[in-house]
Amino acid sequence: MKPLRHILVPVNFTLCAKNAVRFGRAFAEQTGATLSLLYVHDGDLPSPDERRQMTAWKEELLDEMRAPYQLHFRGGKVVQAICEVAEAYQADVLFMGTTGIHQPSMVLGSLTWQVMVEAPCPVLAIPQEARMEAIQKVGFMSDLSAIEKPQSLYPLFFLADLFSAELHIVNVKKRAAGISSEKTQAALALEHELEDIPHCFHIIEDQDLVHAARTFVQQYDIDLLAIMPRKHTDLEQLFAGKLTQQLALHLETPLLAFHEA
Fold first, then answer.
1. Is residue 108 part of a domain?
2. Same domain, 152 and 244
3. pLDDT, position 237
4. For residue 96, which phi and psi values (nearest 5 degrees)?
5. Which end of the chain has fewer CB atoms surrounding its CB within 10 Å, N or C?
6. Residue range(s) defining the domain that contains residue 147
7. Of 71, 100, 127, which residue is a domain's last?
8. pLDDT on residue 106
9. Burial annotation 48-76 (CB, 10 A radius, 16+ → b, else e)
10. Phi, psi (5° rounding) for residue 147?
């Protein structure tokens, strides 16, 4: 299993971004990865005040850190700049702070959603209320469709291995019905890929994917929820803007989004 080498955290000097940096530092210290902070500014150069703020954050959050770190400034459009830096520095994951349930007007807006869609790597959205504690249970919302490239599931394997966590796979059905033979075969194939990881499967009947996710997280004490939206499936709706925003609004749990390889 390949190591985690580079964590990129876009910052805008808000409390929710500060929480994402704390998560990033904890992950970096546990894995030995490099932690990079990125501030996207207007114009050709960052202002003196923006440089002072980055220096203050370094002193508060990164001094005496037990892993390497870097500070980056980049001019341009925010989403484009974040994705370009992630590509250029071969980031393995992006950590992005979100305001969470207590500030719904600001929650996981178009910025984080666009980064989730366009980023070349997985994106972990971290609510401001989330706390970096032991991750014991990782949830995965699955449509139980065949996965042609098992390496697509690497982010799940990595998290489960890193934290010795249980993996809980949930499939949401919109109506009472049996599981099709195709989904049964896909579940068996997934079972084979997960043979070395403690795991279990759940089925929830719910017309509302967001409500189903909330129920799943609360009922099974999920510490981190993962989604892999795929074309022409219900989970693709989670990248349709409002559904993603609602999901983050009603969860105080970090949300990992990654694409099929």
1. yes
2. yes
3. 60
4. -130, 130
5. N
6. 137-253
7. 127
8. 45
9. eeeeebbeebeeebbeeeebebebbbbee
10. -105, 110
Q: Give the residue-averaged pLDDT of 88-107.
A: 74
The answer on 98 and 182 residing in a single domain is no
Strand partners, 173: 205
Same domain, 145 and 118: no
Q: Tell me the C-alpha distance between 71 and 36, whole Å.
A: 6
Among 42, 33, 44, smallest CA distance to 12 is for 42
Residue 192 has which token pair? Answer: 């084979």
Assigned token pair, 208? 């509302």
In what helix (H) or strand (E) does residue 8 lie, and over which residues does it extend? strand 6-10
C-beta of residue 117 within 8 angstroms of C-beta of residue 80:
no
* Residue whose tokens read 């996710």: 213
Number of domains in the chain: 2
- Share in percent of the chain as helix, strand, coil (round to 5): 40, 20, 35
CA distance 122 to 160: 15
At how many degrees (to 10) do helices 78-88 and 110-118 cross?
Answer: 30
Residues 89, 165, single domain; the answer is no
Q: Look at 104 and 63; give whichever has higher pLDDT.
A: 63
pTM above 0.90, yes or no: no
Considering the domain architecture, whether residues 54 and 116 belong to the same structural domain is answered as yes
Is residue 243 within 8 A of residue 210, CB to CB? The reply is yes
Q: Which residue has the tokens 């980064």?
A: 115
Instruction: Indicate the pLDDT class of residue 54, thresholds 50, 70 and 90.
Output: very high
* 222: CATH: 3.40.50.620
